[in-house]
Specification:
This protein has three domains: about 150 residues, Rossmann fold (3-Layer(aba) Sandwich), CATH 3.40.50.2000; about 90 residues, no CATH class; about 40 residues, no CATH class. The chain is of the alpha/beta class and about 300 residues long. It has a six-stranded parallel sheet with strand order 3-2-1-4-5-6, with helices on both faces. The protein contains 13 helices and eleven strands. It starts with 11 loop residues before the first strand and ends in a 7-residue tail after the last strand. It is about 35% helix and about 10% strand.
Amino acid sequence: MGERRSVGSGPCLYLGPLLPDHGAGLALAAAHSAGLPIVLAGTAPSAKATAYSEVELRPRLAQGDVLLEQVESLERWDLLADAGCMIAPLHPEVACSLEVVEAMAYGTPVVTMIGTVGAELVCHGVAGLVLDDPGLLPEAVAKSGRLDPARVREHAASHFDLPAMVSAYERLFADARVLYFQGATYMDYLLGSGILRRRQVDGSYDGSPSAFVASGGQIAVQAYATNEPYTYQHEITAWGKPVAYQLVYDTGYPNYANVLAVRADRQAALARCLARLVPLCGRPRSTSWPTPARRSGNAWFQDPQGNP
């Protein structure tokens, strides 16, 4: 955990994407209404972020304000340690905010909003202030200076230090029901390593969201991080809100999406196909698919020589 070097004497800080709807504009307005300078520091540089920064944010900067489109780790830590408070309105679709946790680890109070992950991370009145109305941000920013940095840091250390988080995950996984597609190879690893117990897992998952929705989100289901989180929030009307997820890769299992296998009794019959497919799978995507390719079944293939 970090160490706070000053108490409430620095500027306000916004640390997050410099994009519409992520709160940078709200943070800027709140700091100005509170009569305080602010540092707007970006964490997701892009052409869109640059355009928004130059058109919408930079013209509104006042004396003492700073706009940084991107910050490196050391600079980020200095900003967190020196800030009087962090203003974190946060986008409601953001599932986690390391920035909020890091700020509290430095003893820097966080002002955030109900309906965002900030409300789950910040203990109201102890580690920061959690609001239900953006119009209250300026007043909350001014009040945040009264919070004890030692208590802010203590909250972070007790809830988000590594041993505490590991214990929380262990409690969560100890009894949670996990649905998966029967035959998924990663499940053998999760069971064999003791991460999951056999009494928890159910191989009858058929891809339907009904079980997850009916449980109120109290079970875990197999999914792709690039698909289901969006689908559950935007397309499954019975759920219609963000979901949290953990990558199987983060448990120590190799990226199962990249594991290819073929049945031994089919290897000879598929040899010609495999001779073309395997080299393609080993290439970066940008070089594998430079031009539209012909379709074969449910996959797209391209001749290594570029022939149609």
